[in-house]
Amino acid sequence: MSHIIQSAKPKAARIPWWVVTIVILGALLTASGGILALVRPDMLVGSGASMNQAAYIYAGYLVSRDLALAAMLLATLALRAYRVLAGLMALTVLTQVIDAIVDATTGRATLLPMILVFAVAYLIAAVRIRQA
């Protein structure tokens, strides 16, 4: 009887290695942003600007946002919770696009190409996961 029950369970979908690689690299990139905000928050302000108490508070928010998102991306990948993973990746893409818009409108466009390449790669990978 247990054999029948076990065979009735749906098998977890498999996703391509390149999608796994993009998820892991994106999670590491996201986590590195959080770690950078934790250990070198002064790098978050423009050149010539000084950190004040408000900037330290917002750096703390960036730490928690980035580390939580990176941890959940890796956890859902490890658990093979692919629908949740695709949703988290879509959230990451939206966050990156909004960050890019803010950077472009405030004159901090040096990272725009990297942000947009990351967002497009994550979007493609999320769509591929949803198709698995």
Task: Describe the secondary-structure layout.
Blueprint lengths: L1 H7 L8 H23 L13 H26 L3 H24 L6 H20 L1
Helix pairs in contact: 2-3, 2-5, 3-4, 4-5
Structure description:
The chain has 132 residues and is mainly alpha-helical. It has one domain (16-131). Helix content is 76%, strand content 0%. It is built from 5 helices and no strands. The radius of gyration is 18 Å and the shape is elongated. The mean pLDDT is 88.
Please supply descriptive tags for the structure shown above:
132 residues, mainly alpha
Instruction: Label the overall shape.
Output: elongated
The helix/strand class is mainly alpha
- The CA-CA distance between the termini, in Å, is 30 Å
Q: What's the number of helices?
A: 5
Estimate what percentage of residues fall within beta strands: under 5%
Poorly predicted residue ranges: none
**SSE sequence, one letter per element:** HHHHH
Helix content: over 70%
How many extended strands?
0
For the CA atoms, what is the radius of gyration?
A: 18 Å
Let me know the average pLDDT.
Answer: 88
The profile of the biggest β sheet is: none
Domain module count: 1
